[in-house]
Amino acid sequence: MSSHEQQAQTLVEALPYIQKYTGKTVVIKYGGNAMTSDTLRRSVMTDIVLLNLVGIRVVVVHGGGPEISAMLKMIGHTSRFVDGLRYTDATTMDVVQAVLCGKVNKDLVAQLNRLGGPSIGLCGLDGQLFQAVRLDEKYGLVGKVTGVNPRPVENALQSGYIPVVSTVAQGLDADTAYNINADTAAAKLAEALGAEKLILLTDVRGLLRNPQDEASLIHVVHTYEVPELVNSGIISGGMIPKMECCVDAIQGGVERVHILDGRIPHSILIELLSDEGIGTMMKKEETP
Fold it and tell me: Which of 3, 116, 147, 157 is the most exposed place for a label (fewest CB within 10 A)?
């Protein structure tokens, strides 16, 4: 088959998926290596612009851990972590807000705009998009999301923009902003928007039966299987809160959740618009 025929075949294969998802909402949680590598970042941004152009309503939710750590280091403030969460004192919170809502958010917006994807940046404080209370004293100003107001995002989507949302929340129990987990924020926003899909870009292939063997990827997980996978140690460490997020999103009405390897160029397009699923997909199914 010539390269032209292959290209045509690829487009034909994508057609039923485009028809299925056009007009639907897809929330993409963007972070990890895909964010820090220029090549991977461009590949993710290109995927998002393409999805937008074929009529899919794409919402991007991002973190920015490495950039926050770099800025804290620059001002001589030590980063420390408690149970895997960044301890957020007042100085750290100022940096989180400045870096996430400012630099990182606007850089992503500018890159999407340059690639032809009209984009607008929002942070969780805009229109009280994310509302939170303090999670636990031991984490400092880390918040637990208690409410989502999706209207600012909906308004942006209706105007044809790709909303890019940073994960800082408005405090309801104190006059402060809160640092919130980006996976959780993306899941809660996907629920509030009635999204068809939530995609979590990570630095792993997906859920592996054997962490040392990438060929042991579990392609499909049903929500009822998660407790047993945790008990058997297949879901462990940082994957536990991630999978809990996925379960919450499905139970909140999101049709499908995908955990995708952001280190693979164009992983979003391969997963969404081709017959070849490359990550772990979670779907709701009653216990057999």
Answer: 3
Residue 78 has phi, psi (to 5 degrees) of: -75, 135
Rounded mean pLDDT of the chain? 91
Q: Which residue has the tokens 């800082």?
A: 168
Question: Cα–Cα distance between 227 and 221 in angstroms, integer?
Answer: 11
Q: Rounded to whole angstroms, how far apart are CA atoms 158 and 150?
A: 12
The model's confidence at residue 286, banded by pLDDT at 50, 70 and 90, is low
> With contact defined as beta carbons under 8 Å apart, do 142 and 180 qualify?
yes
> What is the pLDDT at residue 240?
84
**Rounded Cα–Cα distance for residues 58 and 156 (Å):** 11
Tell me what pLDDT residue 87 has: 92
Q: Please tell me whether residue 201 adopts helix, strand or coil conformation.
A: strand
Helix (H, G, I), strand (E, B) or coil at 226: helix
* SS3 of residue 180 by DSSP: coil
pTM over 0.90: yes
Nearest to 170 by CA among 156, 185, 159: 185
The sign of the torsion formed by the CA atoms of 134, 135, 141, 143 equals: negative
Assess contact for 189 and 69: CB atoms under 8 A: no
The CA distance from 169 to 264, in Å, is 31
Query: What would the pLDDT profile of 183-200 be if each residue is shown by its tens digit?
Result: 999 999 999 999 999 999
DSSP 8-state class, residue 169: E
